[in-house]
Amino acid sequence: MTEPTPATSPETSRPAADAAPTQVDPPVESIPLAPLKPSLEAVLMVADQPLDTVSLATAVGYPPKEVEGALTALAQEYDDQDRGFELRNVGGGWRFYTRPAYAAAVESFVLEGQQARLTQAALETLAVVAYKQPVSRARVSAVRGVNVDGVMRTLLNRGLVEEAGHDPSTGANLYRTTANFLERIGIDSLDDLPELAPYLPELDTLEDELTEALAESLSDR
What we know:
The chain is mainly alpha-helical.
């Protein structure tokens, strides 16, 4: 005798097509890569230290082997075209350098910049550093009332100021005058500076005044 077939419930006989659809993430659009050689040139142009192949590959998004080949090709191109600069791999890192054949032009430019007179803005900034050192750029800006980043770079390049550690409370770089500064103005030590410090506003007092003025300005809005 044939056994009866067991009845099926509506749930068990529901077609698989009625099951909840699986959620599919939308495709992620890939960012197109910029051409390799120009990308390497752009990164190397702003680098302040030699960069190894892996770092450059990470920056431009190409495999290290391709990057290594492109760097070698660029270096050869610059040599073939006798550019004023060259690309060198020194100490495991790639960097642009001026070509030795044109050292005289670079030396002339640097010496001319060293001999040029300081602007009034540079002299005022140098005076603040001399009397308030060690001092941060932010504090020099507070005294002068203007941004001094560009002027400080000029003074650093001239060898008139130098870094002097960090502010323990803010971590900002501190600056002081150099021995070259003393030599240029003809004194032996900072103790020989003219008594001009009393004419400069006290930084703590000035910062308090600026904070109060800012608070009043915001409350009036």
